[in-house]
Each structure stands twice: as C-alpha cells, then as structure tokens.
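Model: Ready when you are.
Researcher: Fold this.
Model:
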Amino acid sequence: MIESRIQQLIEALNVSVLEFARQLGEHRGEKVYHILHGRMKPRYDTLEKILVAYPQVNGDWLMRGEGLMFKVLDSPSAAITVEERLRNMEFLLFQLNQRMALLQETNDLLRTDIEQMRQERNHRS
C-alpha cells in the first residue's frame, strides 16, 4: 500500500514526519499523518511534491511499489549515496523475503491439495 511505502521512505530518508511534510510545502504534518494512518489517500499533487522534494526517489516504486526505492543514476551529479544504495538493497531483500514466504505458503497449500486428491482417489479405488 502506498501509505506503507511513504512510511518506509520517511524512515529511509531518516527525517521526521514533520520535516517530510515541510519539504512538501506543508506547515504542519497533519496531512502526512492522515495519509500514514490510512485516514486519507495521497493525491496526485502530493505524490508529485514528494518526487520534486526528493528527486532521488523512484516514482515507479512510490506509486506502484515497483523497482527500487531510490533511483540508480549514472551521472556523478545525481549519484545516490552508499547509504541509499544499502537501503535499496535492504528493501530488495525485504521484498524477496516476502515473495519467498508467499511462494512457500502457496507451495504448502498445493501440496496439501495434491495429498487430499491422492487420498480421495485411493478411497475410491
């Protein structure tokens, strides 16, 4: 969910919610707090402000959860820090672990289904 990605971004940037909100042009953090707690969905202009305030953030990741949290750019002036690269790696590992857990759960369910089908077939024979 986009709320959790914004929370992850705030944590990865190592800023407070209030500082994050101020970078978006908000005087108080209420709007961001409402988004983080699911009371409000972020509007397009809010997402655009995040990407303008933090140009190192990958828009595909922010909006759809695809790819890395931070852009990996080739130009030296736009290079991300080692810390941001590490956060990218940590996030990728987190995503991989989640996918592995889901695949394991699916695999276990399929094994159970196959075993039940075998038992039903054996009872009919």
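Researcher: Now this one.
Model:
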Amino acid sequence: MEDDNVLATTKQFLRKNGYHYKKRYIRPLITPDSVYIFRFGKEKLNNRIILRYGHGWTGRQKIKEIDLRLHKQKHPRIFKTERSLLKYLQTHLEVHEEKLHEEKMRKLGLDK
C-alpha cells in the first residue's frame, strides 16, 4: 500500500525510542482527503497523531494537517510538516515521559 510511507521517519524515531504504535486509515465519504490515525505509547497507546492528507494531481501525498495529542493534553498541537512534528517530539517527549513516570511513582507512594 502506498500509504505505508506516511510518517515513516516518525515511526523510525518512535521504534528507536521504545514506543509501540498502532495505525488505522479512514477514508471519509464526504471529502476527498484521507485520515490516518496513529496511536502510540510505551505501555499504553494513550498518545495520538491524526494526519489529514490528500493526493495531488500527480498522485503524490500532500499533508494538510498533523494533530498531535499527548496523554492528558487538553488541546492538540497542530503541525504542517512531519519535520516540525519530529522536532516537537524530540524535545517534548522525554519531558512528558518523565512527568508520567513521576506521577506513577507518586501514586505508588514511592516519591521522596
């Protein structure tokens, strides 16, 4: 399937950092665009990327919008390119995972 190269760099980044992911394609009936839902996480798949894309007249994929919602975020972060998404993930995912780990330790009563 040609859509397998969508977010290929992001998938490599997540696999390299120990994240699991699950993908699903949606083809809405009303619009010509496709939607790619990508759920990921280390233990639970509680983070989500929603990619809206279409195809140009040459058949190439054109990303319209990438929405990223990390666990417990109220509003999604919106990106126009995969490169900007990766830049955000590289800087914020580590900090986000540390916060989740601290919350988990606090619930277990193992905090200092």
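Researcher: Key takeaway?
Model: Residues 2-108 form one domain.
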